[in-house]
């Protein structure tokens, strides 16, 4: 998606170690018009899999997941990183490594909002190693639901996440694909 690629090249910052800072428009401050356009494009790409629910991880995945779900006309559920007192005692829980936090994080979903038989579209901000998305897959499977697609705003191909997810046999779509971040650069696929 050209508008996203242009923003990445103009405002993204390569912090080294595979970390791309996009806080100005995705991760801290959100550009709602850009997120709406991204959500519309992801919804277009995944309409054919007939999802009934969008699932993402707290917090950075919420904006693209929400706009995608809005364009599909379905609910969005986000996996929490801590269990609030309003959540039932029995939950779906897994752990996954956080690339930017440098530690393991919990991903928790209430069974009230992820039910058996749901057709789940996973949407996140990044596809890097694929470990957070695999955590969301585990939560989906624990609920007796089925993953029908995986969509991300930005994919970093050099971290191998797509390969880690291919065994799922579902469509995987990324709106901007970064092929290299060596020497302080940000190189996008055409």
Automatic annotation (TrEMBL):
Sorted alphabetically, which keywords does the UniProt record give?
A: Cytoplasm, Glycosyltransferase, Purine salvage, Transferase
Pathway the protein contributes to: Purine metabolism; XMP biosynthesis via salvage pathway; XMP from xanthine: step 1/1
Q: Which GO terms describe its cellular component?
A: cytoplasm
Q: Where in the cell is it found?
A: Cytoplasm
Q: Which GO terms describe its molecular function?
A: xanthine phosphoribosyltransferase activity
The reaction(s) annotated as catalysed by this protein in its Swiss-Prot or TrEMBL entry are:
XMP + diphosphate = xanthine + 5-phospho-alpha-D-ribose 1-diphosphate
Record-annotated Phosphoribosyltransferase domain positions:
49-156
Q: Which GO terms describe its biological process?
A: purine ribonucleoside salvage; xanthine metabolic process; XMP salvage
Amino-acid positions noted as binding 5-phospho-alpha-D-ribose 1-diphosphate in the UniProt annotation, renumbered to this chain: 128-132
Q: Where along this sequence does the record place binding of xanthine?
A: 20, 27, 156
EC number(s) stated in the UniProt entry for this protein: 2.4.2.22
Q: What does this protein do?
A: Converts the preformed base xanthine, a product of nucleic acid breakdown, to xanthosine 5'-monophosphate (XMP), so it can be reused for RNA or DNA synthesis.
The entry's family comment says: Belongs to the purine/pyrimidine phosphoribosyltransferase family. Xpt subfamily.
Q: How does it assemble?
A: Homodimer.
Protein's UniProt name: Xanthine phosphoribosyltransferase
Species the sequence originates in: Thermanaerothrix daxensis
């Amino acid at each position: 998606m050209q508008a996203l690629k242009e923003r990445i090249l103009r405002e993204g910052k390569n912090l080294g170690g595979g970390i791309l800072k996009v806080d100005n428009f995705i991760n801290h401050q959100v550009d709602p018009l850009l997120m709406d356009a991204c959500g519309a494009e992801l919804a277009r790409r995944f309409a054919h899999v007939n999802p009934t629910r969008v699932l993402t991880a707290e917090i950075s995945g919420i904006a693209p997941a929400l706009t995608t779900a809005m364009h599909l006309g379905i609910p969005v559920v986000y996996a929490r990183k801590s269990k609030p007192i309003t959540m039932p005692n029995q939950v779906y829980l897994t752990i996954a490594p956080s690339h930017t936090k440098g530690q393991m994080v919990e991903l928790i979903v209430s069974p009230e909002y992820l039910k058996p038989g749901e057709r789940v579209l996973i949407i996140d901000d990044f596809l890097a190693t694929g470990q957070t998305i695999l955590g969301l897959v585990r939560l989906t499977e624990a609920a007796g639901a089925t993953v029908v697609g995986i969509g991300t705003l930005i994919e970093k191909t050099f971290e191998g996440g797509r390969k880690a997810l291919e065994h799922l046999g579902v469509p995987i779509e990324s709106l901007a694909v970064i092929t290299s971040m060596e020497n302080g650069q940000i190189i996008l696929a055409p």
